[in-house]
Amino acid sequence: MNVSRRGLLQAAGSVAAGLVIPFYAAPARIARAAAASGPPPVNAFLRIATDDTVSIVLSHVEMGQSIWTGMSMLVAEELDCDWSKVRPEHSGVAPVYNHTRFGFQITGGSSSTNSEFERYRTVGATAKDMLVRAAAARWKVSPARCTVSKGVISHGAKTLTFGQVAEDAMKLKPPASVRLKAPEDWKLLGTIVKRLDTPEKITGKAVFGMDISFPGLRTAVVARPPAFGAKLVRYDAAAALAIPGVEKVVPTDHGVAVVAKHFWAAKLGRDALSLTWSKPEGGGITDATLLADFAARARKPGAVALDTGKVEAAMGAAAARYDVQYDVPYLAHAPMEPLNCTIKIEGNRCDVWSGTQGLTLDRMSVARVLGIPPENVEIHVPFLGGAFGRRGTQTSDFVTEAALVAKAAGVPVKVVWTREDDIRGGYYRPAFLHRVQVGVDKSGMPIAWDHVLVGQSILSQTPLFEKLVKNGVDESSVEGVQDSPYLEAVPAKRVSLHSPKLAVPISWFRAVGHTHTAFAMESMLDELAHAAGKDPLAYRLALLEKKPRHATALKLAAEKGGWGTPLPPGRAHGMAVHEAFGSIVAQLVEVSVERRTIHVHRVTCAVDCGTAVNPLALEAQIQGSVAYALSSILYGKLTFVDGQVQESNFHDYKTLRMFEMPQVAVHVISSGAPMGGIGEPACAPLAPAVANAVFVLTKQRLRTLPLRIA
């Protein structure tokens, strides 16, 4: 008998009844507004069962960033439970789970842990208070005379476990307020804790979207336009329907779906379709003409994001001027698990199984397609096999498409994207061009900075456009330039933006705008330092005199990485520091070049994210960021010809291989600053650090990604 790894999946046991703690900690403004209308809505739940298990329901999704562990640690720290009894799980979708910053349920922006830091600790403290009061009532003593350790409440020789008093505690009124532990009293937070999701993943028990299966489920594969801007003219399904296993062929808003008993039949059926597509209006995007258009736009200022001092006058008085262009291509997210979504419609209700970042938007999209109330759409969230922004698009594209297919087919359907579909399916990191003009004084320090960016606006393709785009400036396009710590030291500066409207769908990408702004800023700083004949570290520190956190991170990376010490022949150092999502990451890289091939041997990172909840998870996120960023730095590029992407799979859209992975050393700075994110910031400074090291070795300034040596 053949048994797959997934076939060994064990059924989850039921959870006994017990204490259910609703918790919510709204921002002060919202809390004050809600006070007059009663208690705030339930935002998440903690369940303590009679068997002592502690189930923590998380409104954010686990996609590899370790929030199953990190957010559970927040509750467990204040609860003082037995960590071995903790059982995290994904929530469903409901308004009560809305992200307090964004106003809807979403996982993104490196915001999961820092946005929940207070309220998840609060629920742990609230539950502990109620459990202690329940135990004290049994013993007829004051709660103040009880102690708690590892899920056991004690009073002298008497003990009760959380599970033994959970039902009594459920009947008590939650306290009006609780006092959270001071950092010096933490026992769990700040310590190294192994991931809770690892055992399930290494044994094959973890369920991902691709694993969803039930009787009657069919698989669909969709033929989509071969070029962005192309439209379906006609199709003939006869050959597809002749494939064994193919049951239906149905049109969607943007293509044709083949529904079959299994994936391979659906794939062969799609290949057999006879399709006629129109050509994109204007012929479609082609790389060479796109770059030329961007360069022409950059010759003039765009919508103004920052304008301080008299730039033209300062530029005219400069001892020397530099005019440099940097550009980056479109990038596909390429998560290891390709996109998929399962839809089951029963009357006016619908169940969705999807590895998604944006539950609220997906629910609204499915409800709109089916013409049913949003509350009739239930979304079940499995583990996500990587996302990087692709599973949280502003249009809920792959979920909306699955709803359309299921509605047209009249059967439960899992829509599966092949790797080729994923690479060519749009919603990319937009291509960008930077024109940077800098005027320096006699010592080589910048006194005028004129920075023009050209690239599509992500927010312009979202419902948030009117609210968040001010005066034509999408802040996600200029982040990392507009707020650069270096520019604060420059007397006259201007940052402006052109946001051309193009047919290529774009969306958030890991580190978003910082993926290109850090490359331009830190490469330019390095160019200026070398032109002035100054040490790149000293040059940066002079500009960061009033930015102690940036300076501290940069000096630590330089010290730990051996800046200024001799390296083996043929190797060189490059550096960069950048702030993103509230965290500062400095990197020193050790690089060699052999036969025009760049090798990154070592990356030393200094990280200031305020507070590190789990240093082990932080280190893993930095390592993952380095691997993900190096894929783009060394290989990542989508090539467009007449609106069509030429790359299709990992053979021509390459990612970093294991043997290419450098050693990564991570040094955490506990600054006590407000907590920043950690899933994305380390992606940003790596490209300029590598390019700066390559310059030392080859004297070539590489201003285009991916890096290519002439």
From TrEMBL:
Transmembrane segments: none annotated. It comes from the Bacteria. InterPro entries: Ald_Oxase/Xan_DH_a/b, AldOxase/xan_DH_MoCoBD1, AldOxase/xan_DH_MoCoBD2, AldOxase/xan_DH_Mopterin-bd_sf, N-heterocyclic_Hydroxylase, OxRdtase_Mopterin-bd_su_IorB, TAT_signal. This is Xanthine dehydrogenase family protein molybdopterin-binding subunit. Gene3D superfamilies: Aldehyde oxidase/xanthine dehydrogenase, a/b hammerhead (3.90.1170.50), Aldehyde oxidase/xanthine dehydrogenase, molybdopterin binding domain (3.30.365.10). Residues 203-281 form the Aldehyde oxidase/xanthine dehydrogenase a/b hammerhead domain. Pfam families: MoCoBD_1 (PF02738), MoCoBD_2 (PF20256). PANTHER family: ALDEHYDE DEHYDROGENASE. PROSITE patterns: TAT.
